[in-house]
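Continuing the series of single-chain predictions for the mutant panel. This is the parent chain; the variants come on the following pages.
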Amino acid sequence: MSLLASLASGVSGLGSYSNALGMISDNISNLNTVGYKETRAKFSTLVTESSSSSSFSPGGVQAIPQTLISRQGLLQSSTSATDLSIDGAGFFVVSNTGQPVSPSSEISFTRAGSFTPDAAGLLKNTAGFFLMGVPLDSNGNPPTNLDVTGLQPINISNLTSTAEATTNVAIRANLQSSQPLNAAITGGTYTAATVAGSMAGYAADVANGVIPPTNGVKPDFQTNVQVFDALGGVHTVTLAALRKAPNQWNVEIFADPPGDVTSGLSGTGQIASGQIQFNGDGTLNVAGTTSALLNPITVNWTGGASVGSLTFDLGSDGLSDGMTQFAGDSTIISSLVNGATFGNVVGVSIDKSGIVSALFSNGLSKKVFQLPLSTFQNPDGLTRRQGNTYTVSDQSGSLNIKLAGVGGAGFIAPQTLEASTVDLASEFTNLIKVQRAFSANTKIITTVDQMLNELNNVKR
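Parent structure:
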């Protein structure tokens, strides 16, 4: 009977718009939830098949929730280095256990990137889910094949302190082209191979308190640089120069004090010697420069540190970007040395590729993890879970693990948070529409009730 079917249709309307009200209420209550995705009510008719074209049987309506998971919210700036968002497609991989992923682990996916370290140093968001990443090798490279089972929780408290040995020393300096020749050059007594005839021998006497020095030759120019061994120990290395001839200078490199090294010319700390050749325009002539000054120099440090290797960058051939010879005074312009002393972890930084770097108090940074992103063919088909997370469903398609910026995955946006996609004005408008529709469906029920009452009064 159409009256009873109309009553059922009105009841379905009340149920559907009640569900729609619940979705709107959930949206409004999550207005400030980081990474929240708006849920909309999509209404669909319920049709009861009729065998006659001259009659109609009402079916009603149903409300189907549609979560717009693929819609990106506004990225808002944050002051925390571990607040993250994704600019583009993809989800963070999270776990509720804080343990490395195993075949039996339950993982989920989220856009809520408000991560902070817990008491154990593990990064987790406000819902208590732990951020997962892939560990990098000693060269800062991720594994060749990304796999979910290779993911580990990001822990910033178990990063060890470190030091870094110096391997490269870049020097920019000018040697005066008009420097008079030293008496040791004109008299032929200078030789880098002996203590008595070398600049290193002269420096060793000075370091040992022999005043005036009885050995060696005083250099026309010298400059000191600080370098570091593998244990973080600090050492002073001197580059000394003595004009030999037009466009040619004798150069020695030695440790100060000499006791810092066990190799080289005995008792002087000398580790390399040779000649630097210049062109007529004052630029470096690499071909005429002794290769021992340009190639890696093996250094045997005292104190138990591993054997070091120092490469001196004296400039480019035919350019004035390193050692030069002009008429001006001999002077050091600049020096640049890599390496660092021992330092403790003071924080982390995360770049747009998702690389997590440990920052040390000595100025070093070390790449330790990389954050992968999970992508799906149909992200709107993911299943919603507690804590603003999602899991794979039949509608979403299979999981794909990718590095940020690769294969359609978005980039990591550090120090930002993705805002909720809820539009408050739109939700209030929908709230009015749903309220009016609910009220209208109650009229259907009251009207059918009146008509059924009239029908009951036909026979009295």
